[in-house]
Amino acid sequence: MSEPVLSVRGLKVYYATPDGDVLATDDISFDLERGETLGLVGESGSGKTTATSGILRMVSSPGRIAGGRVTLDGEDMIALSDEEFRKRRWSKLALIPQGAMNSLNPTMKISAQIADVVRTHTGAAPDRARVLELFQMVGLPERIYEMYPHELSGGMKQRVCIAMAVALNPTVIIADEATSALDVVVQRVVAQTLAKVRDALGVSMIMIGHDMGLMAQMVDRIAVMYAGKIVEIAPVADMFARPGHPYSKILIESVPSLTERRPMKITEGITHDPRNPPEGCIFQLRCPHVNDGCTKPQPMRELRPGQTVACHRAEELEGAHV
Amino acid sequence: QNVAREDTVIFDLDRTIKDPDNFNWFTPGTKRMHGAHQTMWEPLFILNYNTGALDPWLATGFEANEDSTEFTLTLRDGVEWSDGEAFNADDVVFTVNMALENEEISSREASTIRAQVASVEKVDDLTVTFALKEPNPRFVVENFGVRIFGSFLIMPEHVWNGEDPATFAFNPPIGTGPYTFTSAATNRAIWDRNDDWWGAKTGFMDLPEPQRVIFLETGGAESRAQLMVTNELDAAQNVGVGTFEAIAAQNPNVIAWHSDYPYAASDPCARQLEINTTVTPWDNPAMRKAVAHIIDRSQIVNVAYEGTTVPSETMFAQYGSMAPFIDAVKEAGYGLPATADVAAGQALIEEAGWTKGGDGIYEKDGQQLSVDIHVNSASTEYTRTIDIVVEQLNRAGIAAKAVPVENGVFWGEVLPFGKYEMSYSWLSCGSVNEPWASMGRYTVSDVVPVGERSPGFNNTARWSGDAAAAYSAIVDQMADLTLGDPEIPGMVAEAYQHLDAEMPFIPLVQAAKLLPMNTTYWTGWPTAENYYNHPFFWWNHTHQIIHNLEKAG
Amino acid sequence: MSDALLDLRDVRKVYGDPDTGLVALNDLSLTIRKDEPEIVTIAGESGSGKSTLANLVLGFTRPTSGQIMFDGTDVGNASAKQMKAYHRQVQAVFQDPFGSYNPFYRVGHVFDMVIRNFKLSSNKTEARQMMEEALNAVGLTGDDVLRKYPHQLSGGQRQRIMMARAYMVKPRLIVADEPVSMVDASLRASILDVMMRLRDEGGISFLYVTHDLSTAYQVGDRILLFYQGTLVEHGKATDVISNPQHPYVQLLIDSVPKPDPTQRWQGEIILPAEEELRTAHSTGCRFVPRCPHAQPACSAALPPAYEVGPRGHRAACILHAPPPQA
Amino acid sequence: MGRIPRKYLINRLITLALTVLIAASMIWVIPRLSPVDPAEIALGRMASGAGAVANAEEILAQLRAQMGIDQPLIVQYFKYLKGALVFDFGLSTATFPTPVSALIAQALPWTLGLMILSLVITFVIGNLLGALMVWDHSPKLAKVAIPAAMVFTSIPPILSGLLLMWIFAAKLRWFPLTGAYGLTVDPGWNWAFVQSVLHHGFLPAMAIVIVTFGFWALGMRGLMITVQGEDYVKLAEAKGLKPRYILYRYMIRNAILPQITAFALKIGLLIAGQVLVERIFAYNGMGKLLYDAILDQDFPVIQGVSYVIILITALSVFIVDLIYPFIDPRIRHEGG
Amino acid sequence: MTSTDHQAEIAADKAARKRAKRMKRFDNPWLNPKLIWGAGLLLAIVALGLIGRMLWNLELVYTGSTPLKLPPLGFENLRKQPGVLDYPLGTDGSGRDILALIIMGAPNSLFVGLLASLIGMSTGIVLGFTAGFVGGRTDDVIRVLSDVMITIPPLLILVVFQSAFGDVSLTMMALLIAGFVWQSPTRLIRAQVLSMKQSGYVQMAQLSGASTTDIMFKEMLPNLIPYLFGSFIASVTTAIVTAVGLEVLGLGPQRIPTLGRTIYEAINAGALIQNLWWWWGIPTLLLATMFIGLLLINLGLDEVSNPRLRKA
Ligand SMILES: Nc1ncnc2c1ncn2[C@@H]1O[C@H](COP(=O)(O)OP(=O)(O)OP(=O)(O)O)[C@@H](O)[C@H]1O
Ligand SMILES: Nc1ncnc2c1ncn2[C@@H]1O[C@H](COP(=O)(O)OP(=O)(O)OP(=O)(O)O)[C@@H](O)[C@H]1O
Ligand SMILES: [Mg+2]
Ligand SMILES: [Mg+2]
């Protein structure tokens, strides 16, 4: 296997709050291979966006990066100065933000917002043709060149963000819930667009979301996050066929089916206070299979080649329903 | 063209020139004070405040008939308007007739002429005769002599003829003075010397030294003080004594009327407390007298004026020219003491049936002895004086309260209609060289009921009764006597006994103005040592001041 | 029609000018019967008029034309007093469970309000019992939640409490506007389960508004699909979803990502330039600009709902027009 | 965007006319609530100069006629409204019979020119400082110094004016003490005059700037905090744009929009607030005119000045409403 | 092993203690230091007024009750007179004691500000709720009215009142100023009411059969409190600045000592050139104190209601 294009080791991002630190992203590690799409899933608040901002070094007060290492293309990102790192942003590491609806400057034309990132990183503003080429790549009509964000629909804005992300041929694109706010039809169009440019440009991608259905459609590997920790990483086929962690199982099984009506899985319990994670397994308060061993630390371990999991009962529970 | 600072004299202007393009002085506004009647328009005579004499200017003299109903004025030969036309009797007759015929021109001088003159006639080019409606020995000084502030100014017939005097703007203006109008904006007016001035040609007087005269709006005491310190101003309007000392400390070239404390020059209008004689309990002369006893004039001088003026001894302005009359009153025993005699005042109040209540205030029939004193809020000098009077009255047992009102309201609604119990005023103002102008303002002929406007703001105290009638009889007699008649001082003293007994108003203090004058560029300013006239440079007699200025160093 | 609980007749809602404004809901007729409680799903993409319908039924807005009858009263013209009485019968659960709580008060406030205003009980212990019972119905206990502030609860708990609140009023109908779209996948099931239990055990009908077809399939008895304010297809949920007949509904169902990496999307769909055909002037089928089967006749008039299957399965598309009778 | 729809324009024009009409009526009514007779006051003022006036009745009658107050109130009112349309407010009572419009014509250019300029400077400085208070990359000093500087906002403008005058004109002599331009320059479009005007205008302008910038700074601070949390600012950062560029183009550009409306709303208040600054610097703008008129109780002038201030405010609100869609592309003219 | 355990324990203990300390500090957002300082400064001014009234001879605010222009204790004036203990803050040009003046004046200025904005706020609440709730014509009328009021200079109204009544009292002045501070709370509340009307909990209340007054006062008003408080403080500042502005113009109450009028008199008497800095400087300092207090409260309130601003 070649060297991963992006490698994250022990990343910790904490938010200070009046009642102590929120361990929003706590000691996560993963690799992103060249040309691969990695899905990062987890329920709302599990720290997906926070992990992204940690990688992009965009954690602002009250948050802070409490530790960890990020290597991009063999370069240690943590060691770079702010100014150096700024130059790496977008040219190597682009972001399709969560909520593209609000991610475009309302008082700037679409074209200008694409142009300014190109100008900043290459020194020259792109000509009209280049911008239109980008529009075409994501299936946007030419007429939006002169338009302002509010004149576009949500799906179009999302695609503008995609166009912007690929403008500089970055090495890695992080798509943070690029489609969750959209209708299914539009979501499908946007997802397809994303897949198309990814394949055309050969970029590596991290796709963040909580919709397992969409993940099944789009990604090569999946990392499951729960309460700031990654609990399982597996190739997408393995993940759906043989999820190793009870939480992964729940995620997969709670996707309602369109083909058969069956009683739904009900999981009870409330996620722990993110400031006070329990000792040992992070999921123990909601896990249906909890036992005494769960209070011991649960390191990630290889279940089978390519599939790692943080559960001491993984083998034992395999095949069991939640 | 530029004129060097050392050839320029800069006077202070304490208000905006609202309408710098209009030189029709018959309509109200600042159409004269910004240099027009100080440099461009000359008066016929100028009253000398030191000697009481009328110095001839555009006129050379006058004669009156026996009963002072007809006056003949002789004009100076060789006077020219700045456009070269001769100034002569036609101009005088034209201008006076204009005032007589046009009731809508409302300036005070025009109204006065209208009230006094029956007709005017030219005798020859340099002689004019006025027929008056009533005898008035003071006709010339009142109308043409710069008695106070201005005089009736003669306008050029050849420019004004055919114009509507109510609306004519008279721009560009011309005059007979040694300066012509150069430019004006709302905050300054510039006048440049006319080297072809008639006075120099005829030998009447040399050309004045300043090549340029500027009247500059300064924007308040602080800025005028700063301008004075930085030599950007040659003569400033009134400042407080502390301010003057601060200026002088920073710029030793700045002087005032007196070289030492109290620095200030006296103003022709002495301050007084007007008492409405129709309102109980102040309709009782004894009560008014009691107030007079209670007031401590020296405290007013010390606090409100910081010692820059003196307590009034009589109703008159204490100029040298008034000395004979003041002395006569004092000799007769009617002069006022500088300090109070509170006990005497309280005795009078108690005699009138009042007794002191628990809170130290007099009471009668369950009523407190109280008084509202109206005061014009336009100046802190006024309000401070009344603050002190109020304090003094309160301490003596009279519940006094000051009621400050705005200038226009004070003069338009309060004073003339008698809508006050007591008020701060300077209504005995008028006499500067003879006593009638002031005394004539309290005669019974001017008494009207409260709520009607008292004619000419005279006797707003509505003083009537036997004493007032006796007083009026003497004063009316005085009215027809020629100026300087030796009978007059005696008559003043005789009339004054009634004033003293009844006190329709209580003289407080002399008014003073502290005008800083800068000797950095110019010397020859009017001062107590160099008393060619008084120093109010916004008056029509400023011609004299400018002629007296000499380049410093 | 005395057996109709809720009866909508040609209900139309236009925002703005009645002639040129935006038709949020186009002449909808719908009946929910008294005798058999059911979950009626209202589905469609964003902006298709689902919430408008919910608000009309709840009396928050009044229809531009048409009538909404509830058990004999005209909801569109109800007085304030009638409205209060009406709300005893019809309750709601909204999309954003957090927004439904006044942040100033403890959770108990939502119950107190109902009890006080509807005079459900004047006795404290009785009231407490009612709350407890309602909370138990959604799997919670009063001690757990009533003294807490809303932000101290999880999203799922908040939404279940809202269900409990609606249930406590013992209404005949609950309008649930996207009750699970802001709740995590893992908690979704429990809320939908509550809905089904309330239907079965409490005899309460639901107007279940959602854009998520899979949950509609799981819990819905009947489904109505909207496109830009018009009803395009309706019928039994299982019928419609497993066998959609309207091109839009087909596209919709095809676009739902399948949670199976081996069954990825086939083919590519293209969205034409968005163009809304929903001013009051618009005629014809609203789906024309995106429809692969569009034909000139589609734009002429709004197609009626043709019968396309058993048990009242109907679709408003001329593809299903019965062949003209000879 | 683009053309302004006719219906919207008409709508806004009606609002404008209505606002001006109501405000103008109020400034007409208010002085008439006062029990004093303006003619008596004018006469009183005439008398206050010398302590007496002859032919009072005659003058009064004339004053009444000239002021138009001898007519029934309703006639006066409509005459006033008619006059206001063409900026004819009658004659000043303090400097009778100067037309009020002439006085305003003299003062207005100074106010419009320099005072508005200083308001604009204040606006710019205030907003910039407000933005810097929030911006992550501002120097530490700015975050302490700016709030401290806002204490000046509590100082009455006259005092700030006097202190500036005292330090910079009297002591340091960097600037002239008073006036709008030098004594030796000729008004006109020549360089010397312009220079002189700027030199003279600096201190009065500063006096206004230092006491009013805090208002804008505080407002901007709040808006910037909101904008700072917006997703588009975060994305801009992720885009690796230069911080300064983000500050101007993404943050200030968006945060400033409500401030522009506020500026239009405040403009009248700010002009009126300058009265004393204009007075101590003998700077003859609208403020000074108003101040003198207040001292003289010259109601026609007060009315005229107030009317012009009202008109300026209403017009600026109107203009901002019209151009707002051009500066904020999100807003579209409604009703078109 | 045990030693590292022990160390870890100590470290954990330390961390816990630190966390506890931090928690305490943040326990109650209202214990914001800015808020406390701000309120403290204002209370100090009130205390100056209250305690001063008991301890100091207030007769000294009358004209001529002290020597003129004495400097504060420890200074000398231009005439080389030293300050005396009887008048520790010096005296003014009319023979009044500056300490007595500020004891009387500072609470007066605060009073005007508080009263004016109290009235303005109440008006704003009533009108804002009415406009937001009733809507339609009523809303239009209120909007036009507030637009009109914004365009009218307060000066004009004050001038007229003074000429009509000769003088204004503090209360009257506060009333007049209130006429100019109600617009912004009105707008703010109207906007809030409009958006709250759409909010879930108001709809829930409607569904729960709550009456309109209940909805306004029980559901909406409590949530407006932070806004109202912030807006109140802002309008107190505006009101004080307006009041002082008018007083400095000489248009305020004539007979009641206020900070603005003291400054007005100082300026009129040429205090600057006479170096009578205490005459204008001490009232200005008090105004600045008041203003800083209000500013701090405002900033503090901002932090309370907007946690993003709180420092970690
Ligand atoms: N500024 C902050 N202060 C305190 N806690 C924060 C802050 N920002 C985020 N958090 C907390 O950090 C945790 C992770 O948040 P994050 O936004 O990364 O979640 P996410 O996985 O992206 O969720 P979603 O799917 O909703 O986007 C959450 O518990 C959140 O409440
Ligand atoms: N108060 C309103 N005024 C004007 N237009 C409105 C209003 N409320 C809704 N609309 C419009 O009516 C249409 C239908 O809106 P509605 O909220 O019913 O859609 P929805 O189906 O609930 O969408 P979503 O799934 O996004 O909640 C939309 O185009 C919306 O913009
Ligand atoms: Mg996220
Ligand atoms: Mg909706």
UniProtKB/TrEMBL annotation, chain A:
Coiled coil: none annotated. Keywords: ATP-binding, Cell inner membrane, Cell membrane, Membrane, Nucleotide-binding, Translocase, Transport. GO terms for molecular function: ATP binding; ATP hydrolysis activity. GO terms for cellular component: plasma membrane. The keyword Membrane applies. It comes from the Bacteria. GO terms for biological process: peptide transport; transmembrane transport. Residues 8-252 form the ABC transporter domain. It is a peripheral membrane protein. It is found in: Cell inner membrane. Pfam families: ABC_tran, oligo_HPY. Belongs to the ABC transporter superfamily. This is Peptide ABC transporter ATP-binding protein. It comes from Litoreibacter roseus.
UniProtKB/TrEMBL annotation, chain C:
Keywords: ATP-binding, Nucleotide-binding, Transport. One of its GO terms (cellular component) is plasma membrane. This is ABC transporter ATP-binding protein. One of its GO terms (biological process) is peptide transport. The keyword Repeat does not apply. Pfam families: ABC_tran, oligo_HPY. Gene3D superfamilies: P-loop containing nucleotide triphosphate hydrolases. It is found in: Cell inner membrane. Its main location: membrane. PROSITE patterns: ABC_TRANSPORTER_1, ABC_TRANSPORTER_2. Residues 6-253 form the ABC transporter domain. It comes from the Bacteria. It is a peripheral membrane protein. InterPro entries: AAA+_ATPase (IPR003593), ABC_transporter-like_ATP-bd (IPR003439), ABC_transporter-like_CS (IPR017871), Oligopep_ABC_C (IPR013563), P-loop_NTPase (IPR027417). SUPFAM superfamilies: P-loop containing nucleoside triphosphate hydrolases. GO terms for molecular function: ATP binding; ATP hydrolysis activity.
TrEMBL record, chain D:
It is a multi-pass membrane protein. One of its GO terms (biological process) is transmembrane transport. Coiled coil: none annotated. One of its GO terms (cellular component) is plasma membrane. It comes from the Bacteria. The lineage of its organism: Bacteria, Pseudomonadati, Pseudomonadota, Alphaproteobacteria, Rhodobacterales. PANTHER family: OLIGOPEPTIDE TRANSPORT SYSTEM PERMEASE PROTEIN. Keywords: Cell membrane, Membrane, Transmembrane, Transmembrane helix, Transport. Its main location: membrane. Residues 108-324 form the ABC transmembrane type-1 domain. Belongs to the binding-protein-dependent transport system permease family. It comes from Litoreibacter roseus. CDD domains: TM_PBP2. It is found in: Cell membrane. This is ABC transporter permease. The chain crosses the membrane at residues 12-30, 107-132, 144-169, 197-218, 256-277, 305-327.
UniProtKB/TrEMBL annotation, chain E:
Keywords: Cell membrane, Membrane, Peptide transport, Protein transport, Transmembrane, Transmembrane helix, Transport. Its main location: membrane. InterPro entries: BP-dependent_transpt_permease, MetI-like, MetI-like_sf. The chain crosses the membrane at residues 35-56, 110-135, 155-182, 224-246, 277-301. SUPFAM superfamilies: MetI-like. It is a multi-pass membrane protein. GO terms for molecular function: dipeptide transmembrane transporter activity. The keyword Transcription does not apply. Gene3D superfamilies: MetI-like (1.10.3720.10). GO terms for cellular component: plasma membrane. It is found in: Cell membrane. GO terms for biological process: protein transport. Residues 106-298 form the ABC transmembrane type-1 domain. Belongs to the binding-protein-dependent transport system permease family. This is Peptide ABC transporter permease. It comes from Litoreibacter roseus.
